[in-house]
Model the fold of this input.
Amino acid sequence: MVAIVDYGVGNIRSVVNALKRAGVCSPVLTSDREVLRQAGHVVLPGVGDASVAMEALRAEGLAEFIPTLTQPVLGICVGAQIMCRRSEEGDCGCLGIFDTDVRRFAPQPGLKIPHMGWNTISNLSSPLFKGLPEGSYVYYVHSFFPEVCSDTICTTTHSATEGEGQTFSGALCHGNFYGCQFHPEKSGATGAAILKNFLEI
Amino acid sequence: MVAKRIIPCLDVKDGRTVKGVNFVGLRDVGDAVELGAKYAREGADELVYLDISATIEGRGTFCSLVSRVAAEINIPFTVGGGISSLDDAARLLDAGADKISVNSAAIRNPHLIDEIAGRYGSQSVVIAIDAKQIDGRWTATTHGGRVPSDKELFNWAHEAQERGAGELLFTSMDHDGTKDGYPCDTYAALAGLLSIPIIASGGAGCVQHIADVLTEGRADAALAASIFHNNEIPIPVLKKELSKMNIPVRL
Done:
């Protein structure tokens, strides 16, 4: 059973659709701890503001609970950001699973914010990317990013036409916890492969 | 580096993709979901679905089409056509669209942009502007270019960005349908003015036109319909050619 954490925040429909395309018959939307505890895999979606997402998670009483899960857990976009230590968005403390902070893209000449569109992932180092070549394209939409750290399993550079750009963690892993800043559910065949790989972990 | 995007646009009437024939008839070119899936397989980076239904029933059909697209297609897609209220936008975004585009209704009621961006975020709002030059002034129009508004292109595009639009889709009605290329200088001026991504639309007749607007015109994406529907320039060919010209595209 695959469970999607339902805490009133997130791109839940597109995640449900993508899991169904990946062969998961009926992903379970839930905030019930027992159901989450028993799931084979857990997905933590998220869109919008990280501090709002953290508040929602706390309101559901899940902020302390999520880090205690032992099965593979995948955070997507803001879901991945709130698995870090802190976010500059709303200056909020997060779950502290990944050993890094989330920062806002600093303005640079020729750096478009939000970082939106298809960009490449490099330094792939996780079973999450099994079968995928360096430089595969994935789809991003975000203005805040997790910094590169020891938990980074791929990097992406948001290039500026004039400034030097910004390299960040495209995805992270710490133990059984995975996080993708990009949207695997919108990343075509590459994203589908990443979700399939996650479900096989 | 973010890749330049290639975006096929599908006009939809009662669930079917149609295209205009000499501005009079509409020819059915196929099931909208199937065609979108085919473009996605061929390497389209996003899809745009425009609802050209004029009836309430047609609008209902479009909403269920959006759900089907969301279920079956694994790349982002934008929907537009007749969105005139936050409720219209909400219905389509809740059905699974990634972005909605607003055009005439935003000219009538610019606050609509603030409302949608406020609830769903800037990344979900595309401001579409159809403009043409009237006495040397780029004027935003409505009704497919027939009715000039009181809004000047550059001012309006900037205002829309400030109100929360996350992308600009600019079509020059002077170039649309001509297959003579885009007004690259105007696109470049918009790119200099705005920080949001710009999608070029209307005027492409060959690969070089698209290459020009993505380089000289500094556009982030190119949207087209007939060249893809008629298979004049298949997407894989287009992307390969752009890549040969050192334009970053997702292959």
Summary: The mean pLDDT of chain B is 91. Chain B has one domain: 5-244. The two ends of chain B are 14 Å apart (CA to CA).
